[in-house]
Design goal:
Immunoglobulin-like; elongated; four-stranded antiparallel β-sheet; alpha+beta; five-stranded mixed β-sheet; about 130 residues; single chain
Amino acid sequence: MKKNTYTFIFILLAILLFITIFLGFNFSSSRNTSPELPLIIEHLNPMPGDQVPQQTILEIDLPVGYQIELTIDDYKISSNEIEYVDAIGVYRWKPGPGKSYESWKPGKHTVKVKWNTLTGLPDVGEFTWNFSTY
């Protein structure tokens, strides 16, 4: 083969390598595809779509000055069962003896949180997400 043929083959292989790397980065499934949360929610645990152990604590972080209404699997949780850390605006709930749920059952769970401000202008909203326990 002539020298020009080898040069052409190397250039073609380099272009194919570049295209393969480009497509790999653009269409890879390992990208961080975390779901979009409403702006008012600063953090959730577990996040939508997560699979977590049955001992998991449900945690909802809102700005200070908000109250929530929590519904899990179409059952409203009493506000007496929800722990609230006033200084940082975090609501926590964990199933246990004497509560609405004794424990998380394995499988999919649907959580719906509604919020509103305690004082001042109303800022009403809600968010629903799913996660699974094992």
